[in-house]
Amino acid sequence: MKSDVAIIGAGPAGLMLGHLLRKAGIDVVILERQSAEYVLSRIRAGVLEQITVDLMDELGLGARMHKKGLPHHGFYLADGERLIRIDIAELTGKTVMVYGQTEVTRDLMDACAERGIEVVYEASDVTLHNIESDAPYLTYKKDGAEYRLDARFIAGCDGFHGPSRKAIPESVGRTFERIYPFGWLGILADVPPCNEELIYANHDRGFALGSMRSKSRSRYYVQVPLTDRIEDWPDDRLWDELAMRLGPEAGASITRGPALEKSIAPLRSFVFEPMQLGSLFLAGDAAHIVPPTGAKGLNLASSDVAYLSRALIQFFKQGTEEGIASYSKTALARVWKSERFSWSLTTLMHRFPDGDAFGRRMQVAELDYIASSRAAQTALAENYIGLPL
Ligand code: APR
Ligand code: PHB
After folding, report:
1. Is 162 in the pocket of ligand 1 (CB under 6 A)?
2. Which residues of the chain have pLDDT under 50?
3. What does the DSSP 8-state code read for residue 167?
């Protein structure tokens, strides 16, 4: 089999890149290790920056997002009984869209067949070959048979655990990492949200987040020790904890219900440089991970594939190589700004096990500054809605 671009991974990055290239008449094949059902079973974050909304609209795949999504004009920082509203619409003139990543993935996935994008699900043992040549190829297995996929370029959109990043020799690549000493316990429930907008809470008992998927489906998180297991958190204990941490007003408005999904995820900041080598380009979680606090994971995947698709279209349609030559430098400039914001908001809003009195005073002082300064709120808002491409 032969294609212009071979994409590894049918998550948001791989699917969005596939659509952007196909729309420009570039042939793509996507190899995905899991089944389509499995990919859609993943519960992920749910806040879209304008660039992600714009990309879905550019692809003509935004109808369901605009119908089911919730434009949000602000969010809250809670600190004990204090509630600080960040009016992102007034401060930046922009909004964010609350719409589950699973739904973005579904919209992209459902449009592949009609647009001539071949996705091979349950492709195992995907292996990269000759990535530093002009004729790289992938091998993989499907239903017991072995296959080869030749392409001019390979896009590694295979997430944190995929093979693409590992195909770049250690002598070339460099990693930057911060592992946080806590995790997030998340619950999805078909109950109305406790507040119309998201609430990020820094409480003496730890961080909590009140979010949503719709006006009838809520998504909540609490910070938990890395040693905690799901079994330690029956629904009632989790609802009690949320009522305490989100503050008296929001806590009193929580509607309880059975968990549709409950999981614990660790938090890390991670960046791999460079995001390219020869004919291989990395995009999305394959190259970087952010703690979910700033809701940047999906949106960084969007900006990566916006840059990469433009560079590849320039190569195939105009025969110029400036874009592909500078992809890593261009993408990393935005990645690092989002990494900084996600790390900063995580540091501001969580209680660290080894935190001391000075660290807590720094959090209070920063929250006091944000509460009293339009400039501080504007800086927070413009990072939250997403810095320009
Ligand atoms: N072969 C083929 N596919 C693979 C392999 C492999 N060896 N390893 C991983 N994959 C697939 C995964 O099954 C997954 O569907 O690559 C895809 C990567 O998708 P994501 O992990 O969702 O990463 P990305 O598309 O970059 O999207 C980033 O997803 O995980 C969230 O928080 C993250 O919001 C961020 C977004
Ligand atoms: C979510 O709704 O899952 C969500 C929202 C905002 C975040 C993280 C997660 O910062």
Report:
1. yes
2. none
3. G
